[in-house]
Each structure stands twice: as structure tokens, then as C-alpha cells.
Amino acid sequence: MSKEIHLNLEEETLFGWEPELSVEVAEAIVKGIEAEDDFPVVPVIKLGDGNYELSACWSPLGPLLDGGHARAVGHYVAGKPLKCIIVNESKKLPASYERVNIKDIILIDDPKEYLQKRRAYPKYRNIYD
User: What is the SS3 assignment for 25?
Assistant: First the structure.
């Protein structure tokens, strides 16, 4: 059985592979955190010494790799621990993907990504309320 942990992203380092994220998506996650929504665990691989990496999995939005970047960034912005589960393996990432610290992900204006996620996940928070 995998171990559930809560990562404090101020003190621990979490790597992903997406260098940018929709600011609207991050806002929706932060709204959910503030409303005390219960988010699914994010699968991570422990690298050692307070370093972790998102574990790639297939996205319910299609044949894309997903690892929980939006949840991780939202929890980092909100200053709340991220609920994770430690796993031992991950899908192989394409060679073109580069490791990026969650703290270094750039928030960009991309309402299309937000609307796509909102359609796919009925409980996604409306940022326009």
C-alpha cells in the first residue's frame, strides 16, 4: 500500500514538467482550497532529501500526461500542504520534457485551459462567481 503524505511546498521541493499553467486554473484550485474542497491525492515519487517528483499518469482529458501540476501550484500559492501518495513508478516522459520546480511554474492568461478543465470536471470551481 502506498503511503499518503502532505507536502509543505515551502519547505520541500516538488518537480514537474509543465513550465506554464493557466492563471485561471490556479485561481480555481485556490478557490477550492479556500472552500475546503477535498482534492484527490497527487501521485509523487520520492527522490530523497525533501525532493519529490510528480508521477506522470494519463489524463482523463485525453491522451496527455497529467501529474497534478494545477493542484500543486494551487496549494503552493495558497500556502497549504499538498495531499500526495508516494508511488514507485511513473509513465515515461517524452525526452523533450524538462524537470521544473513547481515554485518556478509561470502563470499565464489561458482561459481556454480553464474552460476545458471545468467541462471535464463538474466540481471545478467557477472563478467568475
Answer: helix
